[in-house]
Predict the 3D structure of the following.
Amino acid sequence: MATAKLDDLLKNKVKLEKNALTVLQKRYLKKDENENIIENPEDLFFRVACNIAKADINYDKNADINAVVKEFYLAMSNLDFLPNSPTLMNAGRHLQQLSACFVLPIEDSMDSIFETLKNTALIHKSGGGTGFSFSKLRPNKDVVKTTCGVSSGPVSFMHVFNSATEAIKQGGTRRGANMGMLRIDHPDILEFISSKDKNDSLNNFNISVAITKEFMGALEANKDYNLYNPRNGEVSGVLNARAIFDRIVEQSWKNGEPGVVFIDSINDKNPTPEVGKIESTNPCGEQPLLPYESCNLGSINLGHFVKDKDVDWKRLEKVIKAAVHFLDNVIDMNNYPIEKIAEVTRSNRKIGLGVMGWADMLLSLGIAYGSQESLNLAEKLMGFIQNKSHHFSQELAIKRGAFANFDNSIYSEGNLIRNATTTTIAPTGTIGIIASASGGIEPIFAIVYKRAQCLDNEEMYEVNPYFEKLAKEKGFYSEELMDKIAQKGSIQDFNEIPEDIRKIFVTSHDISPESHVKMQAVFQKFTDNAVSKTVNFPNNATKEDVKKVYILSYKMGCKGVTVYRDGSRETQVLNIANKKEGELSAKGTNPPRIRPNRTVGFTFLMHTGCGKMYVTVNEDDNGVCEVFTQLGKSGGCTSSQAEAISRLISLALRSGIDQQAIIKQIKGIRCPSPTLAEGGAILSCADAVAKALEAYNKEKMSPDLFMQKALHNSGTNKERQYSFDPDANVSGACPQCPECGEMLTFAEGCVVCRECGYSKCF
């Protein structure tokens, strides 16, 4: 297809940041059977453009395909617009599965449950994520007439789906993700709300409670509301609305789940109500879909549309037109994993055009995120995108016809339209890295943070490029200042930074939760589908604070809301907080005491991500005096590091430093290979040593309790072995990327590594 004219396009190299190129090489660029990369970024965008442009021939045999290829290629290679990851990965390749979002039905029968499980496996294998409502399943202990037994309930089947997802790695590039939803009026709602109370449960699911208008009315009036048995639709009990709402709030305050989705509000805006009711969303909540429906998404990089301190509306309109054309073509070029999905998707032709780089645009314009000025611009901007996307969809309908389920009475403008929906605000984890753009409509998380360099054990600063440029222009940039900012993430307390700059460069934790909701609501006002966004809370936020956000989001017209209180999970996703200096201090300056010839202690077997570690803790007449470790083959890098840790601990112990201070320093240190243990997660070799010291203290305080776990006791030296369970790996959130070791960020219902592109739904 490439003519000499198109070949000239490929001579212009795509301008990519280092992290963007790393992500493309690791996850997107085509590889041969030996995992050697056989295309460059220009080839990738050209491959995708050529493949998606072919759909034009379906509607016009004489279409100028070269012109369409050029339009699509320039939009992507300039990083002005990028489609969702499956399209970039698979278009023009054997798999050709291009959608990211699917919703599958689950009816109240074993046939339906396991048919859906099979279809889920096919979707995950092809690179998609799935959403389900488990609301039609009869409750736990309900009657099953065919077997004269009782049902195990929806939550039990969620665990089945979770296990299946764990076993499937999507196409070698994306891991499975699910949304599990249950209506607030289901009899098992209490069990569902607490189903992710522990961070190691249902790790392949985001969960959300589907809130109804009936419930919200009862909540406001402080009344009871009805529970309905889905088997027969009859009232099966009542619960107090405020008590249940408080339970939801408590769990969300505790660890961010469940989220809430206002299911009746979603169906009020359902563009095809005659086709069916919307029961669930995709994994991150931004795409409500009918059963067996899919949607393909794409995002415009707003940071590229600032010109002369204003939005470049003319160029933005041009890219919106190209994006709508592109996404509509994707529907035709898609190789759907299930025929029923192809049928429903092509009948409604939903597309989801969204944005990334919103925070970048605000910084370029000198507007503070969360200010009234930012809300006004958001309303104008998203109104423009929605209006233009509808207009261009109508133009396509004139040429290609309206979507098959089009109902003229639903659309007040009375015009045909090609796509049932055109706009969605989706998470932009990996495509945001490729475009070097801030995520979706989120604010920036930190102005400066430190990134460890694993190879040379040094640290470097990641500085927001807009801030770095201004700091150098204004003359207040220094490595010392960057180090201070990196400890806090925010610049609001630094008086040496001009006030006008502090006002503009606000982070997610500088912005009030109410302002987060207001921003989401403004974008939702002009979004056909829904908005993926996280409302960030400081660690000291109260449950009442969370409650207010839920109520506010409902009243302001949001279709759902996700909250995250900093540090609320057992393993923090991205930690900026400064470790206090001086927590470890020696008692005086006396030299360490001499080790006696004979010591007494225990040996503990700790299973770490680096293998079995034997930790020996010994004491003399004055208490614990030394720690020895044995890990792997002597002379290896990991072994040498473990030996260094134990020698320094031994030196500190014999120098009179408090044992608890040592434990506090090394406990919780994380590496890329954590392991789940019977007594909790072993996050690193250093963490294993700390927990061995804690186990030793438990032995001294409560020998009987400790002996329940002791595997054997031999010799006069009281050698004992304390074994953590090595059979389970931590699959939940980790503060470091399991693939490259860098920090993960939490936003839009996902964790994502800005270094290598690893992502996982929370």
Notes: The two ends are 42 Å apart (CA to CA). The chain has a mean pLDDT of 86.
